[in-house]
Amino acid sequence: MTQNKDNQPSEYHVASFVAYCTLARVDEVKQAILAYEGTEIHATSDAGKIVFTIEGDTHKGIGKTMDLLGVHTGIINLSPVYHQVLDEEQENKLA
To answer: Less Cβ crowding at N or C end of the chain, within 10 Å?
Structure first.
């Protein structure tokens, strides 16, 4: 991970996911998702699918949250859809 001159992380990660849940536990899974810092739910279907994102400073943090959610008893399948990394140092050099 890169760091800026103040020794602070200069990366920003955002990853999107689709969780397929048992219908009886959709609300429980939504609460579990929102319990983690940097998460946001964008859509929920009547079929039990939840589209959400996780934002953070490192890919490891996002991976850890994904791993913790993936073992939730209400989730049948958790699929990553997209992951983007923005490096502030690199962005500043290009600007």
So the answer is: C
